[in-house]
Amino acid sequence: MSESLVRASQLVKRYHLGSEIIHALNGVSLEIRQGEFVAVMGPSGSGKSTLLHLLGLLDVPDEGSISLEGKSTASLSDDALTHMRRDKLGFIFQTFELIPTLTAKENMMLPAEVAGKRAEAEKRCQELAALLNISDRLNHKPNELSGGQRQRVAIGRALINDPVLILADEPTGNLDSKTGEEVLELLRQGVLEQGWTVVMVTHDVNAATYADRIIQLKDGQIEKESRAVEVQAAS
After folding, report:
1. pLDDT at residue 234 above 60?
2. Per-residue pLDDT at 2
3. Between helices 177-189 and 147-159, what is the axis angle to 10°?
4. Which of 15-19, 138-142, 231-235 has the lowest mean pLDDT?
5. Phi, psi (degrees; rounded to nearest 5) at 230
6. pTM
7. In what helix (H) or strand (E) does residue 90 lie, and over which residues does it extend?
8. 75 vs 53, 61, 71, 72, 201, CA distance in Å?
9. What values do phi and psi take at 228, rounded to 5?
10. How far apart are CA 190 and CA 235, in angstroms?
11. Contact 6, 163 (CB under 8 A)
12. Quick check: 84 and 57 in contact, CB under 8 A?
């Protein structure tokens, strides 16, 4: 059995809306294992984006703890959290978040530039471009790329520093169904053949079936967990 990569224990996150306190998460515990593809689903307001932000170290829980590769993040300084995000995590967004003035290659290389790893990332960039089938698009800017190509560039950017965990926020939300399936197949292939670990937030049941495991959130708590094959069989 693969090793535990992420452990989240009794996560609580509250937001103040005037005099009202909103519990975005209310006691969520989960484990993500290396090489696993996990989909997080739930209605609007269920806490799925909040959970992704906490796992991505973009925010901190009000209660509970998160550990990555066995190391607790609770006592880390802001600088240490920034370095962990940069070196250990890769982010894929619904809206791609590419810099329009940079080429595809420059967008992919940006996290490596920030980390001071440009030299070693050059070869990885070429390898990722081949894997993502965008080798012939590296010198093009985002407005010269299709939606699917832009998302592939965004995936390459997420992977350039060889992260241990990829966090995808509605990665097919701005894509047509055919292109979306191509991106999901790519993530699935990466998990199976490259050993990627992926946590994906999605509202799309079909997208979730590409995962190994589906976590359903409701009102800030885990309502149920299921294997993707069980969802496929029921649909």
Report:
1. no
2. 73
3. 20
4. 231-235
5. -70, -40
6. 0.92
7. strand 89-93
8. 18, 12, 10, 7, 27
9. -60, -35
10. 25
11. no
12. yes
Residue with tokens 């590419």: 98
DSSP bridge pairs for 20 = 17
Is the dihedral angle over the CA atoms 146, 152, 155, 157 positive or is it negative? Answer: negative
Distance CA 104, CA 145 (A): 9
HSE-up of 176 (CA within 13 Å, CB side)?
5
| Token pair 């739930």 in the structure block, residue | 42
DSSP state of 144: G
* Distance, CA of 227 to CA of 209 (rounded, Å): 8
In this structure, what token pair is assigned to residue 25? Answer: 């998460």
Q: Rounded mean pLDDT of 52-67?
A: 96
The rounded distance, in Å, linking the Cα atoms of 44 and 22 is 14
Contact partners, residue 190, CB within 8 Å, separation at least 6: 131, 196, 198
Q: What SS3 state is found at 158?
A: helix
Q: Which residues contact 73 (CB under 8 A, 6 or more apart)?
A: 57, 65, 66, 67, 81, 84
Give, in degrees to the nearest 5, the angle at Cα 69 between 64 and 70.
Answer: 60
Q: What is the pLDDT of residues 147-167, one digit of tens each?
A: 999 999 999 999 999 999 999
Q: How many Cβ atoms from other residues are within 10 Å of residue 82's Cβ?
A: 13
Give the total residue count for the chain. 235
pLDDT tens sequence across 99-133: 999 999 999 999 999 989 888 899 999 999 999 99
Helix (H) or strand (E) run with residue 221 in it: strand 221-227
